[in-house]
Amino acid sequence: MSTSPLHVIVIGGGTGGLCLAQGLKRAGVGVAVHERDRTRSDGLQGYRVGIDADGKRALRACLSPELYDTFVATCAKRPVYFNQYTEQLSQLFSSGPEIFKEPPDFDELDLDESVSRMTLRQVLLTGLEDVVHFEKRYTHYEQRPDGKVTAFFADGTSATGDVLVAADGSNSTVRGQYLPQAKLLDAGLTGITGKTLLTDETRTLLPQRILDGVTMLQGPKGFMCIIHVMQFPWDTDGEPKDGIGRTEAELISQWPGLLHDNSRDYIMWGFAAADHWLPADTMQRKGGEAQQLVRQLTADWHPDLRRLFALGDPDSCFPLKIRTSEPVEQWQTTNVTLIGDAIHTMTPGRGVGANTALRDAALLCKNLVAAQEGRTGLLDAIRDYETKMVAYGFEAVAKSRRNMDGHSAAHKGGVTGSLVRGLMRTSMRAMNQMTFVKRKMAMSEAEFRGAARQAED
Question: How many CB atoms lie within 10 A of CB 332?
Fold first, then answer.
């Protein structure tokens, strides 16, 4: 086994790719990230992202202690409740700390966080100025006779390294060349995301449990809308709010990423419906047109929810086609591999897409460091990563799809759809009366999201 230095080429500067680059650079492994966006603030879709135990452990493993502390300091207030409400704001199900006689003995790393996608991106870019190359549109790769791999870009440049990592998202060009059999499936759903500032007025539109939690609204025709309320530790002028700790205030004040931040206290809402209920041109509707479509589709919803949508920032609204990966058999290992959405795109149904990408990054980083240090062979390191990633990644894909499938009976019209939705509401109301069921569900979800997970990776 060789201890010669490795050089890793990462295609794509999203969550997984940047986390991997942070870990490799910190460990002394050569790395270069090639990102098609023009600047560090381009290319974001969405606002809030939940970081669970898997994600937090991966970030702690890959980031410097100071940068990890900055990530923690810039997270929003943690959600306390998980809720299900009807479109008329009638509670179907709500689970919070009151379900436990004694709080679970979770480590701090087991507790979910909420963070702005823009903020997380800036954290992950911090310190990588010499590593990330913008405006690099990848076209293809070639594997060389000397065992190395070369990536080519649309501007005529190329980069050669020992490993090529596809971190270029759901529409991965690398995957298209390397694993053409790996396909994306249409989940039959389209989402429209928007952002409404949290003000004295908008705060009064939502019940307290929704303000303090993560909430799914269940509407007619299978329409759904997820709501996250994001409250950050800094004020509207970018200064730390009164009452937060001195250490956190200093981190936020000194951190250069804050200059690029788009997070002020806000309510993020994500409406979704089966495609057969939507206009054919839904994906072409941006901004105010997308917002207006949500208002039209929710004309019979509670007036407070309609007001919430009406007060949204039109520029924040955009449609998103929801797709999912089709699981593939594990492939023969080479010095090309994949992380995140490039291999296991999943619906937002379980909220673990970004976290699974972070888990990939930490595991692959650990294995590549072991290869550079001569503790394992390079292909053995990649094979070990892929074996574990395929197992947990496609498990998450399957579970996420079960929670969001536009082809299911719940999204149908007529008697069948009404009956299924009615039964779902009845069962949620029944479970809402059973504390032991809530407790079991909460512990199962925490385990799925990595709580108390040992570092078996």
Answer: 7
Whole-model pTM above 0.85? yes
CA-nearest of 446, 449, 448 to 100 is: 446
CA separation (Å) from 435 to 79, 90, 441?
Answer: 19, 19, 10
Confirm if 33 and 18 have CB atoms less than 8 A apart. Answer: yes
Collapsing DSSP to helix, strand or coil, 306 comes out as helix
Collapsed DSSP state (helix, strand, coil) of residue 243: coil
Q: Is-contact 107 239, C-beta < 8 A?
A: no
Give the separation between CA 297 and CA 277, rounded to whole angstroms.
Answer: 9
Burial of 204 (0-12, 13-18, 19+ CB in 10 A): exposed
Which residues partner with 8 through β-bridges?
31, 163
Residue position matching structure tokens 């940047």? 18
Task: Give me the sheet containing 158-161, strands edge to edge.
Answer: 138-143, 149-153, 158-161
pLDDT tens for the chain, 457 residues long, are 456 799 999 999 999 999 999 999 999 999 999 999 876 655 555 578 999 999 999 999 999 999 999 999 889 999 999 999 999 999 999 999 898 877 677 788 888 899 988 889 989 999 999 999 999 999 999 999 999 999 999 999 999 999 999 999 999 999 999 999 999 999 999 999 999 999 999 999 999 999 999 999 999 999 999 999 999 877 666 666 766 666 677 777 777 766 656 667 899 999 999 999 999 999 999 999 999 999 999 999 999 999 999 999 999 899 999 999 999 999 999 999 999 999 999 999 888 999 999 999 999 999 999 999 999 999 999 999 999 999 999 999 999 998 899 999 999 999 999 999 999 999 999 999 999 999 998 888 888 788 767 655 5
* Beta pairing partners, 115: 49
Nearest to 353 by CA among 328, 316, 386, 322: 322
- Any alpha helices (H) in 373-413, and if so which ranges? 378-403
Q: How far apart are CA 451 and CA 55, in angstroms?
A: 10
The helix-helix angle for 15-27 and 353-372 (nearest 10°) equals 30
Distance of alpha carbon 403 from alpha carbon 420, whole angstroms: 14
Please list the residues that pair with 133 across neighbouring strands.
Answer: 34
- Please report the DSSP string for 313-381 in residue order: -GGG-EEEEEEEEPP-PPPPP-SEEE-THHHH---TTSS-HHHHHHHHHHHHHHHHHHHHTTSS-HHHH
CA separation for the pair 408, 347 (Å, rounded) = 14
Eight-class DSSP state of 45? -
How does DSSP classify residue 452? T
Go through the chain and tell me how many residues it has.
457
Residues 293 and 156: beta-carbon distance below 8 Å: no
